[in-house]
Design a protein that fits this description.
single chain, alpha/beta, TIM Barrel, eight-stranded parallel β-sheet, 8 strands, about 40% helix, binds pyridoxal-5'-phosphate
Length: about 220
């Protein structure tokens, strides 16, 4: 069970288990699975494609499930208007232009949209994420935006890095961010393969798909 794994990882790290939130990654799985997970007490779900997530959030809501929706995939600016309608958190903001598009799109929301700045830990931007000084530029623009709230950072460990090394660096970047933006304490790190390392290095959110729902069809 994933919740046991998270609890054990927290105990090993000397952290209370309620410091780490499970984000169930439901991409490729239907709305009925979101409803099922919500019934089991899952409070947060993650999706990476707007065209899949938008109808799924609508169907889940119609069936009475209202988890917090985290958008975790690369996002094109022309999808900002759609995403702000159902997302509670956008975890994958890595440019000032995307932050500005989300801010404009979020103007009609009752609550500001929570945003995490996605970090490219190895500086390779091909899979998304801001690196170097871009990270601070993007963070400052989110913090200054009237309809966004800067929540913290998100990252995926680079394939060829030891997860401990990757998440240790992420925590250092998070500490630098919190020094100037004290509310930005979220660290979204850790997936099915590396959640223990992420929890050791301070993750507040782990994004788990495979270990919870099984292997996804690789063709989708
Ligand atoms: C798919 C995905 C996950 C979940 O990965 P698993 O290995 O299935 O747990 C986490 N984060 C992001 C950004 C993803 O795209």
């Amino acid at each position: 069970m994933v919740s046991d794994r998270i609890a054990r990882a927290c105990a090993a790290a000397g952290r209370p288990a309620d410091e780490v939130t499970l984000v169930a990654v439901t991409k490729t799985y239907p709305a009925s699975d979101v409803v099922l997970l919500a019934g089991l007490g899952v409070t947060d779900v993650g999706e990476n494609r707007d065209q899949e997530a938008a109808p799924k959030a609508e169907q889940a809501r119609a069936a009475g499930a209202a988890p917090r929706w985290h958008f975790i995939g690369q996002l094109q600016r022309n999808k900002a208007r759609s995403v702000v309608r159902y997302a509670d958190v956008v975890e994958s903001v890595d440019s000032v232009r995307l932050a500005e598009a989300l801010d404009r799109a979020a103007a009609d929301r009752a609550e500001p949209l929570e945003v995490l700045v996605q970090v490219s830990i190895d500086g390779d931007p091909s899979r998304g994420g801001a690196a170097g000084d871009d990270l601070w530029r993007v963070s400052d623009s989110v913090a200054a935006a009237g309809h966004l709230r800067l929540g913290g950072v998100m990252a995926v460990a680079p394939m060829d890095w030891a997860p401990d090394r990757a998440f240790e660096q992420l925590r250092e970047l998070s500490q630098r961010l919190v020094a100037t933006h004290p509310g930005a304490t979220t660290i979204s790190a850790g997936m099915s393969g590396d959640l223990e390392a992420a929890v050791r290095h301070g993750a507040t959110h782990v994004r788990i798909g495979t270990s919870l729902l099984g292997m996804r069809n690789p063709l989708r």
